[in-house]
Amino acid sequence: MSSELDALLRENRLFPPSEDLIKASNIQKWMERYGINDYDQLIMRAQDDPEWFWDELARELEWFQPYTDVLKWDPPHAEWFSGGKFNITYNALDRHVKTWRKNKVAYIWEGESGQVVKLTYHDLYVRVNQMANALRSLGVGKGDRVSIYLPMILELPVAMLACAKIGAVHSVVFSGFWAKAFQERANDAQVKVAITVDGFYRRGKVIPLKENVDEVLDGIPSLKHLIVVQHAGCPVQMKSGRDFWWDDITQEQEKECAAEVMDSEDPLFILYTSGTTGKPKGVVHIHGGYAVGTYTTLKFVFDIKDEDIWWCAADIGWITGHSYIVYAPLIMGATSVMYEGAPNYPQPDRLWKMIEDYGVNVFYTAPTTIRMFMKYGEKWPQKHDLTSLRLLGSVGEPINPEAWIWYHKHIGNRQCPIMDTWWQTETGMHLITPLPITSLKPGSTVKPFPTVKADVVDDAGESITEGGGHLVIKTPWPSMFRTLYHDQERYVEAYWSRFPGLYLSGDVARVDQDGYFWIQGREDDVLNVAGHRISTAEVESALVSHVKVAEAAVVGKPDQIKGEEIFSYVTLKEGYNPSPKLKHHLREHVRKEIGPVASPAYIGFVEDLPKTRSGKIMRRVIKAKVKGEDVGDITTLANPEAVEGLDHAL
User: Which helix H or strand E contains 468, and what residues bound it?
Assistant: First the structure.
């Protein structure tokens, strides 16, 4: 970077794991099997011989034919477990129904209105086989693309697993996106079949998804058939010969379906992620390496045991749900919780009630969700017995120390380590993360996962020991994406061209004196204030550390003298009211926490910040408002009324 990023917040508190947790952990037992004494020795041995590490873990899965090479690496192209024949659904289901896990619960699903469905591994196996046979009856085969536009209902993982079983490539579209986004992704992937739903529930309202989809189907020329799940019971139009009800097309199908024998490197799915050009990028993941990487990280990072109840409270429409709701938990034979609705509906204790009801042991959610619950106060989790929890997790964005401490204290009862994981749609699995055997610093993702070499570099690609810079990965990993769908040139240009041989993450980070990594946000979320480069995440963290603040969003406003001024919107916790005096106190608080250069020039109080349906703050909209520009498309917002609130805040 032109100048080092100012890393202004310093966090020195250390939280070591308990001896009992260390001794019982999967990673500790695995290390003992290989005569490895501690975490540092594990990292050294894995760095020295990464192929040994991944070979040992890959052998825990079932291969139709053994691989000949663990890794072939010709940057930026990797082949993992080449020559191996594999199917990820076979490893997620078929091998389990041959064992005692046949009657183990795979999913506990709860609808927004409270209904509960439990599916065993055998139940799931039968449903997947019938859908796989139904897809084959519609002409879907190996390599064909299927678009899945479903909310958080059980048919979503069933559809994904069915595609994978017959070698089709699924492309899941987040149900909170509008139909045009579905159309754009379906056309890019040239899908043959799509799967959607009549409607689904969100905060007590029915979202008529099929009705919305009908408006764009004529604009998807490759689409031959549409399968519709009957879920909300709302009226829909069905086009004869094109549209089929899910139940009608599956119920007469055979309950057995042989898994397609796939090459380890055959594509598994395309997942579209936002790009700087505005055109979504179709990230391609494959069967073999993706399975090994996600399985290994869930086993070691979240320490899942056979008796555990695991809850990744993400949406399957994102990579977190693909990796850690669908594939890795099922490969491990775990029991997972799935929830259809909003996390704070009908009351702000919905998640905590479910943790108590199902005895959840390991819980994984986003910092945005934690900060939302901070706003409501600790009285809501205090209503429930959360003592079943052993580990907590954080995903999706940097977690500020204040939220980390609240999560640890009020959800984890000061007993649960927080696995603050850094990874991306492109990486498929955790790359920088704590383990249950590592000491934690609030807000730090700790160190790279075994075999992963991460670094922070300047504009010339040289390592930085102080301050922040570009976060890069120097070594391949099994679940790395292989390309961008039909856009190999963009794959190379966007991720591998700036620092040849290194994966450019697009994130800013720093490394402290102990080798701990601190993610500071996206590179385009860095402010340039009077020559100082300041992470928006750090200013937001300082604001949220004030006792009265629940959430904060910080953007830069162009300034002729300073370059940028810091512009912030904040929401307050219940019981506190906006005032000019509080604005002054917040500026002084940031000045004290970080320094004068980071003190916001503008502070606006709002009832809510504009967020997507997955809970992420939509900073693009806030930036546009601050600059006086058109906010553009806001159909993906869960709360479009919040945009108007921005106008009245200052």
Answer: strand 468-473
What the chain holds in terms of domains, given with CATH numbers, is 17-87+267-521 (3.40.50.12780), 91-260 (3.40.50.12780), 546-647 (3.30.300.30)
Phi, psi dihedrals of residue 566, rounded to the nearest 5°: -85, 125
- Whether cis (ω within 30° of 0) applies to the bond prior to 500 is no
Cα pseudo-dihedral 291, 422, 313, 278, rounded to 10: -90
Q: How buried is residue 158: exposed, middle or buried, by Cβ count under 10 Å (0-12/13-18/19+)?
A: buried
Instruction: Specify the residue for token string 């999560």.
Output: 407
Lowest average pLDDT, out of 16-30, 115-129, 247-261, 564-578, goes to: 564-578
Q: What is the pLDDT of residue 604?
A: 92
Residue type, 480: M
Q: Nearest CA to 159 among 109, 228, 207?
A: 228
Give the pLDDT of residue 276: 47
Q: Largest Cα–Cα distance in the chain?
A: 71
Q: What is the DSSP letter of 260?
A: P
What proportion of the chain, given as a percentage, has pLDDT over 70?
95
Strand partners, 418: 392
Mapped onto helix, strand or coil, the DSSP state of residue 433 is strand
The confidence score (pLDDT) of residue 616 equals 74
* Gyration radius from the chain CA atoms: 24
Find where tokens 């009549």 sit: 198
Task: Provide mean pLDDT across the span 310-321.
Answer: 95
CA 285 to chain centroid: 15
Report d(CA 144, CA 192) in Å as an integer.
7
Measured in Å, how far apart are the chain's first and last C-alpha atoms? 33
Dist CA 650 CA 645 (whole Å): 10
Give Cα separations from 130 to 1, 85, 161, 254, 464 (angstroms).
54, 23, 11, 6, 54
Helical ranges in 170-243 per DSSP H: 179-189, 209-214
Region 4-16: mean pLDDT is: 68
Q: How confident is the model at residue 100 (pLDDT cuts 50, 70, 90)?
A: very high
What are the φ and ψ backbone dihedral angles of 386, each rounded to 5 degrees?
-105, 15
Q: Do residues 615 and 609 make contact, with C-beta atoms less than 8 angstroms apart?
A: no
